[in-house]
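Example 3.2
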Amino acid sequence: MSTTDERLSSKLELRESKGLLRQLSAESDLIDFCSNDYLGFARSKELMDKVSAELKKELKAGGSTGSRLITGNSQYAEDLEVFLAEYHQAEAGLIFNSGYDANLGLISAIPGRNDTIIHDELVHASVRDGIRLGLTKSYAFKHNDLSHLETQLKRAENAIFVVVESVYSMDGDLAPLKEICFLCKKYKAHLIVDEAHATGVFGMKGEGRVVELDLQSQVFARVHTFGKAIGGHGAVVLGSSNLRDYLMNFARSFVYTTALPKHSLVWIKNAYDTMSKINYKKLITSELQVLFKTKIQQVVSSPSFDVFSPIISINIGDSMRTKSLAKSVQKDGFDVRAILSPTVPMGTERLRICLHTFNSKTEVGQLAELLIKHL
């Protein structure tokens, strides 16, 4: 075994000894309480039928054959970007291959060498990686702590960019966007909002929290992803036409990658058409969430209990116990996963519960009772 292989094995063994080793698992027939398919689009036969019907007319090649700037572009893609911008009430949009690619390209390309990025300490890894690829200074602020954000804004230099998620993926809690917008205006900072877990869940038509709060004119850029509630793949960065043109030229994760194939674009368009007809007022007052939270909060607390969110985090604080609890619930037929360090900070290992439109009241009640039993 080479020195490099020994080093790799040593790191894997260390992670395994701490109960933190990640492994892949194939799909199962367990009841889904872990995916980001909040609206059930990924499993929707009606949506699949619509996509199949349109692909018979539109599909001319299996793949896109190249990057958007060479052979991978299409009028369909450009029309879809116009549609997405209008849907989310933005001037323009640029489609990326994933939310990760969108954040990586946006965050690494926009700030200059002497600018400053300030981000919530719990912001997604793709934002952090974008910062690493860039040349700018960066500071974190304590999660949703407006006072600490203002402290960091006071020390910032040159162009300032504040990056937050509207709905945080691990706890399901919400950023105080109105207050953050006020501070950004006060310190002339540019606000970037990752709407990955708000897309399809917040707003009159699933437009996200920025539109729901009527803050779109105060936000420099938004990222909406299609791999969660939309049930497909890809993402769009929304902002000004100038921002779109700039990213098209300088975002490396856009320039140097093969474009999404046509079937991904067709899925996105048809999913949005379906989403526009959903009764979001009914969705937001979902009895499933009330039922689950009312039962489970008898034995545990969570930052997400006080807000509407399809994500409910149950902190355990120990990797071995968290994995054991997840396996116990899985044996009873419910797909609940353990979220471990380094995905979340050490000591905050948790079960992340996701509620969906396809979960029944009976299933939600049974899951709550099981968790109460095991906790």
